Amino acid sequence: MFDLPAFVSENEPWKHLLTLVAENRSPQSLALSAPSICHGSLVSSYAQSLLCSAGTGDDGCLACAAWASGAHPDLLLCGEEGSPPGIDDCRRLWGDLSLCPVVAPWRLGVVFAADHLSLPAANSLLKMTEEPPQRARLLFLLDDGELIPTLRSRCWNLSLAPTEREGAEPPPQSVQQWAQSFSESKSGGQDALIRLRRWTSSLLERGDVDLACSLESVRLFAERTRLSESMLQDLTYLVLKGDLSLEQIFSDFW
Prior knowledge:
Blueprint: H1 6-9, H2 12-22, E1 29-33, H3 39-51, E2 75-78, H4 87-97, E3 107-111, H5 119-124, H6 126-130, E4 136-142, H7 149-152, E5 156-159, H8 175-186, H9 192-205, H10 209-223, H11 229-240, H12 246-252
Parallel strand pairs: 1-4, 1-5, 2-3, 3-4
Helix pairs in contact: 9-10, 10-11
């Protein structure tokens, strides 16, 4: 409908996200990494799914063609495609999101180029992501960078970058399976980041969305930093076993 490229529209985490929205289980704060050329379409698609209870664009809402322009009264755009908002824009967003929705179930605040926010602007959004207004949702759009750790740890993190499609593979359960996984990594077997994608897909298929998003955050963290193989293995193991929270990952390791 919104001219999304196939690598987005067929992306399993993206499709599962839209399913959660339809079930009224959308995340309060969502960080989407995708090529900037897709950002306008992503905003339109996500906004229509979230702000229209029927997901059709005619449930008391304005015309679909007006969504990306910000004409919908409950769609609040902060910054512009490819250009991040300043600190004053971010502060105004907090006030606007605190108002009751006009015609939709939610108010949606969209922060463009969130990976290029100045540190003061990013810090001004911390309270909003930590204690969001009751009927508000946030969408951070990223291209080739990342949010500051304190923001990222408060969001669901999904990467929609074009990659070869990977099948689902359940993460290890037993000590023997973990030992085999570590052994394969040391012997130059399946790439660790690809393996994390397979595990994330499996968790999404079985409905374990929170754990899948945590694992995706670990993958993004590892992909954009110089983590050693052993450190990545340790983080993955601790997250999947429930012994390490995202807050610990993005505070203790930075």
